[in-house]
Write a structure and sequence with these properties.
The protein has 185 residues and is an alpha+beta fold. The protein contains four helices and six strands; from the N terminus they run E-H-E-E-E-H-E-E-H-H. Helix content is 51%, strand content 21%. Helix 3 packs antiparallel against helix 4.
Length: 185
C-alpha cells in the first residue's frame, strides 16, 4: 500500500515565516505532515493521523554543526527539512508543558537576530539586484520604447517585475518592521 501524498502551492515571503508555521500546524491538524519543501511555493505532505504539532522555522544561511542540531533534539524538536537557509523543526504540542516549550528562541534578542540575518542575506541581495539590474533596465527600455513588438514585450515584462519587486519590498519591509517592534517590547 502506498502512502497518500499531496503537494500544496503556497507563497510565503521571507517575512511571513510565522504565518508559514501556523499554516503548517493547521495542515498537520488536518492529517497532513510536511515532508519537504521546494521553495518558493511547493509543499509536499504525506497523510498522517491528525495531531496538534507545532512547527518552527529558524534561518541559518550556512550549514549548522552537530551541536546546534543536538540542542534542538535535546529539547524534543525534530529537524526534518532545510530549504534556502530555512530550517524546519516540529514537535507535538502534547509534549509541551508550557508555552515556552513551543518556542525555539529563548528571548526576543534571538528573534531580532533572526530578522537581521534574513535582511542581510536575503533582502539586501534582492535590493541590490533591483537597483543595479532591474531598475536600470526598466529605465533603458522605457527610454528606447518604440513601436516594435519586442520592445513592447520587454517593457511589459520589466514593468511587471518592477511592480512585483516593489510590492515585495513594501510587504517585507512593513512586516519586518512590525516584527521588530513586537520583539522589542
Amino acid at each position: 500500500m502506498t502512502e497518500e501524498r499531496k503537494t500544496e502551492i503556497k507563497i510565503f515571503t521571507i517575512a511571513d515565516y510565522e504565518e508559514e508555521e501556523i499554516w503548517l500546524r493547521e495542515q498537520h491538524k488536518q492529517g497532513w505532515k510536511l515532508v519537504n519543501t521546494v521553495l518558493p511555493v511547493f509543499y509536499h505532505f504525506v497523510k498522517c493521523e491528525p495531531e496538534d504539532v507545532v512547527y518552527r522555522l529558524d534561518y541559518k544561511n550556512s550549514k549548522e554543526d552537530s551541536a546546534y542540531m543536538q540542542m534542538f533534539q535535546d529539547y524534543g524538536w525534530e529537524y526534518f527539512n532545510e530549504c534556502m537557509g530555512w530550517l524546519y523543526f516540529r514537535k507535538p504540542a502534547a509534549d509541551m508543558d508550557s508555552d515556552m516549550e513551543g518556542e525555539i528562541f529563548s528571548d526576543d534578542e534571538s528573534r531580532i537576530e533572526l530578522l537581521n540575518q534574513v535582511i542581510k542575506t536575503r533582502l539586501l541581495p534582492l535590493l541590490t539586484i533591483f537597483f543595479l539590474c532591474l531598475l536600470p533596465q526598466c529605465v533603458n527600455i522605457t527610454a528606447r520604447f518604440t513601436d516594435s513588438g519586442l520592445s513592447f514585450v520587454l517593457f511589459i515584462i520589466f514593468s511587471v517585475l518592477l511592480l512585483l519587486y516593489l510590492w515585495l519590498f513594501i510587504h517585507c519591509g512593513r512586516k519586518m518592521t512590525n516584527l521588530r517592534r513586537k520583539y522589542k517590547k
